């Protein structure tokens, strides 16, 4: 099993994600510079958090046109697990692999804090290791994480079970219906605002994030 | 004074000295270079003799003051680097850009030692935000500037402190400290030691922003501040992120001999310092410098402080590797000259030499002798309380006071998690704790207390150092190095220079008692308002780094389990000068709390011993707001109440509210399951201590001499946690 973490200029959670995959989950993982990502033979690909291209134009907008995204779209079509974390989620939406949009937080401020989440869908490539309706404790850290869609889109996502995670209790960003993670129809492409790689060590505050990566392993193996 | 077309800030004596040393009249470009390099900001010409008092050596110190960062050995082949900078003048004019470029500067200081920046901290001072809309505007934009820049470059902002006082209304103080980590064998110095090595400039282009930044920082802000806007640099965190990655990669690839951050004084300072430290000279070709605007004069190019640039000294033969790394990151990279053996800084344009100054002359400004005079303290004493107080209301008022209230509104805007190293996060403990690659942990904190220092700069500055060390000890770390940042008014005023000298002496004397080396620092004078003539209160800020040996030693401040005993360590005295309590009530006293150097040292040692013995379940330093605030903070952090019997607090005779709010030094509060063992350790170190209560329920219950006070956790939480937001964003409530 081999996973790739894509590094864009301005990515800043790339090494953190590689560390958790390689050193904690013991998955063979390569950090690949975006222009060099042409090999679709990886079993999974992760777009890490950060500020790709400095968030110039719009968060994720420039990275969405990187040559790497062609390879990633192809892998997504093949049913391979594709995860976008934070800025990675923004890139997946800009690429069109996921629906909706991510607006600035309602407070118009960057928000960094640990949040209570409910796992709404346990059949996606990144949530199958969770129990149905279980809670998860992970940090968020972003400026543009307010998921937004027209009502019919939101209804459709709910009906299809594509809302993957939701805030429980406090909604610190004002996101629609508390949504913080969604998937594509097949469930192999997931975008999430919380950072699972930051919740993968007890010393740092929790280990619920490890289940996200365990789900990916399970998905590839079955 | 005008020389040619150039307006210099040099004194007549300095100009005479320059002419005499050179044996000729410098041209306008040379005057401009001398002016930038000899500015107070770059040369420390007023402060150098005073700063020599600080102890700078120790068994762990590899590089002390004088370089871009201090370097401390943490064992196993790893080093910590640390530095502190301020951006006070720029932030007073353009708070967003000023604060952002302040982080940019200090991050480059860590980077140019070849180490990775892993955390930044901010120490901020603003006017009274409860009264001034201007200060609210300054504060919001400073925080946003730090957040936008720090978050984007992927360096977590992990701790800090904020003080509010009317004296900072027109002169906010914005200090950023940065911590780095690296391998000892990859350490770089800002030195050009080998002639024929290439001098490369990478990153952003050289523009007209930040012209005269160093000299602008070396005088009082004028009334017409809007005109000074061009002295503030423009931040570009995205380019900075690429520079961090590219510079570290170039260093790992072995291409670099030295590296220098271009900050105050721009290219002039960068070139003269690498050449002076390396005992060489440099020759630079003006046309090779990439400029942002076509008609920039040589003077503008040489003193521009445009951000996001690094000066690299590249080993001969490694140029191609360097260029390929820079190309991958899309960074501009140009060989602008080379190292020479001439010991001269030479600038050429075409075939013509347009400036030529001896390295040692340019890099070493003549020292300005300053006179210090102690002020006559004749302050009105009004320390008698004549109205009866509702202690419950008073405590809630203290929790709401912006200096004491939770800084959640601030630190939730900072990404304090990126890098997955932050073990103790903002609000959880007295200092930030970060995981290091060698299995140990670094603790770091910044502190300041302008009210104490205003009353007595010697005791005040020593108390700031004491508090900062207590914070580091409270999380379970042994302090290993400190940084100082001295912020004062105009050093030409004898009383201000006296305050500066006494503050440094206070820090130096106490640092010697602790055997704590000072590995770097910064001096910022001229924090004074031209219109009112008013200087800021003396504001030395200190950063202390410590080392935690084991994960299990890490101690947070929240109460953990019901029934655990609360031990108060250290004696509470009736010392209320400079306290939050007196400030809130408009009372004054002439003295800040006293500091017994030996007792403070013993107290810290004893507490650390208890923590390492596994006796302590939570620990908190007791300082601003005294015992009452410290207990409330422990209760709120752990979401558990406590019962405290005031009769059991080691203290001399005073009123209840004075005892609860006195800010005496050398005190900690800790919780334990084994109070007898803790008291025995304290007794062995001759440190006063007593069990004063236990963790219990949902209230903070204080049994006073003649009554009981009960504060529900929820009420305290609303006062403490929402206060700053209510002040800064009243529409949100």
Give me some keywords for this one.
heterodimer; A: about 220 residues; alpha/beta; Rossmann fold; 9-stranded mixed sheet; two-stranded antiparallel sheet; about 25% helix; B: about 725 residues; Phosphoribosyl-aminoimidazole Synthetase, Chain A, domain 2; 7-stranded mixed sheet; about 25% strand
In short:
With 222 residues, chain A is α/β, with parallel strands linked by helices. Helices cover 24% and strands 26% of the residues of chain A. In chain A, the strands form two sheets. In chain A, strands 2-1-3-4-11-10-9-6-7 form a nine-stranded mixed sheet, with helices on both faces. Chain A has a two-stranded antiparallel ribbon with strand order 5-8.
Low-confidence segments of chain A: none
CATH A-level architecture of chain A: 3-Layer(aba) Sandwich
Number of strands of chain A: 11
Order of helices and strands of chain A: EHEEHEHEEEEHEEEH
The CATH superfamily of chain A bears the name: Class I glutamine amidotransferase (GATase) domain
What is the residue-mean pLDDT of chain B, rounded to a whole number? 92
CATH class of chain A: Alpha Beta
Strands in their spatial order, largest beta sheet of chain A: 2-1-3-4-11-10-9-6-7
Radius of gyration of chain B: 26 Å
CATH-assigned fold name of chain A: Rossmann fold
How many H/I helices of chain A? 5
**Biggest beta sheet summary of chain B:** 7 strands, mixed
């Amino acid at each position: 099993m081999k996973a790739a973490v894509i590094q864009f200029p301005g990515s800043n959670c790339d090494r953190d994600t590689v560390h958790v995959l390689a050193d904690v989950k013991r998955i063979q993982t390569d950090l690949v510079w975006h222009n060099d990502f042409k090999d679709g033979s990886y079993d999974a690909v992760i777009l890490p958090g950060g500020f790709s291209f400095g968030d110039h134009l719009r968060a994720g907008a420039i990275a969405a046109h990187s040559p790497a995204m062609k390879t990633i779209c192809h892998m997504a079509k093949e049913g391979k697990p594709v995860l976008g974390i934070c800025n990675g989620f923004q890139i997946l939406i800009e690429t069109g692999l996921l629906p909706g949009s991510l607006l600035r937080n309602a407070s118009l401020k960057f928000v960094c804090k640990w949040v209570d989440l409910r796992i709404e869908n346990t059949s996606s490539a990144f949530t199958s290791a969770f129990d149905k309706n279980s809670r998860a404790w992970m940090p968020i850290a972003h400026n543009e994480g307010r998921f937004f869609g027209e009502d019919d889109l939101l209804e459709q996502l709910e009906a299809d079970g594509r809302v993957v995670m939701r805030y429980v209790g406090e909604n610190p960003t004002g996101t629609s219906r508390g949504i913080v993670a969604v998937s594509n129809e097949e469930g192999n492409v997931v975008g999430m605002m919380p950072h699972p790689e930051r919740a993968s060590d007890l010393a740092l505050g929790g280990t619920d994030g490890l289940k996200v990566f365990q789900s990916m392993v399970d998905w590839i193996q079955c | 004074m005008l020389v040619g077309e150039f307006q210099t800030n040099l004194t007549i004596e300095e100009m005479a000295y320059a002419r005499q040393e050179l044996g000729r009249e410098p041209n306008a470009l040379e005057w401009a270079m001398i002016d930038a390099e000899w500015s107070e900001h770059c040369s420390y010409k007023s402060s150098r003799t005073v700063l020599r008092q600080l102890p700078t050596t120790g068994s762990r110190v590899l590089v002390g003051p004088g370089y871009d960062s201090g370097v401390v050995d943490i064992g196993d082949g790893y080093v910590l680097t640390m530095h502190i900078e301020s951006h006070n003048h720029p932030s007073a004019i353009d708070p967003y850009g000023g604060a952002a470029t302040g982080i940019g500067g200090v991050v480059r200081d860590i980077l140019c030692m070849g180490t990775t920046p892993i955390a930044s901290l901010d120490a901020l001072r603003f006017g009274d935000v409860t009264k001034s809309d201007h200060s609210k505007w300054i504060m919001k934009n400073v925080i946003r500037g730090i957040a936008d820049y720090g978050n984007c470059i992927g360096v977590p902002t992990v701790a800090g402190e904020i003080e509010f006082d009317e004296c900072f209304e027109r002169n906010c103080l914005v200090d950023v400290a940065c911590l780095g980590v690296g391998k000892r064998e990859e350490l770089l110095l800002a030195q050009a030691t080998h002639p024929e090595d290439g001098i490369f400039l990478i990153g952003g282009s050289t523009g007209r922003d930040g012209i005269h930044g160093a000299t602008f920082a070396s005088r009082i802000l004028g009334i017409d501040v809007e005109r000074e806007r061009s002295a503030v640099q423009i931040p570009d965190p995205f380019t900075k992120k690429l520079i961090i990655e590219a510079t570290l990669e170039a260093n790992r690839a072995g291409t670099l001999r030295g590296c220098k951050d271009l900050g105050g004084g721009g290219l002039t300072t960068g070139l003269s310092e690498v050449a002076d430290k390396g005992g060489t000279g440099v020759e630079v070709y003006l046309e090779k410098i990439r400029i942002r605007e076509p008609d920039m004069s040589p003077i503008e190019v040489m003193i521009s402080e445009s951000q996001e640039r690094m000066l690299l000294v590249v080993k001969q033969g490694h140029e191609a590797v360097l260029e390929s790394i820079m190309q991958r990151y899309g960074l501009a990279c140009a060989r602008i000259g080379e190292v020479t053996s001439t010991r001269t800084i030479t600038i050429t344009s075409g075939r013509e030499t347009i400036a030529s100054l001896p390295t040692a002359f340019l890099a070493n400004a003549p020292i300005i002798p300053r006179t210090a005079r102690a002020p006559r303290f004749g302050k009105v004493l009004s320390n008698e309380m004549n109205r009866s107080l509702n202690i419950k209301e008073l405590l809630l008022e203290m929790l709401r006071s912006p200096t004491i209230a939770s800084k959640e509104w601030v630190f939730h805007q900072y990404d304090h998690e990126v890098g997955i190293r932050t073990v103790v996060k903002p609000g959880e403990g007295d200092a930030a704790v970060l995981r290091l690659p060698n299995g140990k942990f670094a603790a770091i904190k910044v502190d300041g207390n302008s009210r104490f220092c205003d009353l007595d700069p010697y005791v005040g500055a020593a108390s700031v150092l004491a508090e900062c060390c207590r914070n580091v000890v409270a999380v379970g770390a042994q302090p290993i190095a400190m940084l100082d940042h001295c912020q004062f008014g105009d050093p030409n005023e004898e009383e201000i220079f006296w305050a500066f000298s006494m503050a440094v002496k206070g820090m130096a004397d106490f640092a010697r008692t602790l055997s704590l080396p000072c590995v770097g620092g910064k001096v910022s004078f001229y924090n004074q308002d031209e219109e009112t003539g008013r200087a800021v209160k003396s504001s030395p800020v200190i950063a202390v780094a410590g080392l935690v040996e084991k994960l299990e030693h890490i101690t947070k401040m929240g109460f953990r389990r019901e029934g655990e005993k609360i031990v108060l360590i250290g004696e509470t005295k009736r010392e209320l000068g400079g306290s939050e309590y007196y400030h809130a009530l408009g009372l004054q006293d002439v003295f800040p709390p006293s500091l017994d150097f030996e007792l403070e040292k013993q107290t810290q040692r004893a507490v650390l011993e208890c923590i390492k013995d596994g006796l302590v379940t939570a620990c908190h330093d007791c300082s601003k707001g005294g015992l009452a605030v410290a207990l409330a903070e422990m209760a709120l952090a752990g979401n558990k109440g406590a019962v405290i019997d005031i009769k059991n607090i080691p203290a001399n005779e005073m009123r209840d509210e004075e005892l609860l709010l006195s800010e005496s030094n050398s005190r900690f509060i800790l919780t334990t399951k084994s109070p007898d063992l803790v008291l025995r350790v304290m007794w062995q170190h001759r440190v006063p201590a007593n069990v004063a209560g236990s963790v219990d329920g949902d209230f903070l219950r204080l049994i006073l001499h003649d009554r009981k006070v009960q504060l529900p956790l929820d009420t305290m939480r609303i006062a403490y946690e929402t206060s700053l937001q209510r002040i800064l964003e009243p529409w949100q409530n």
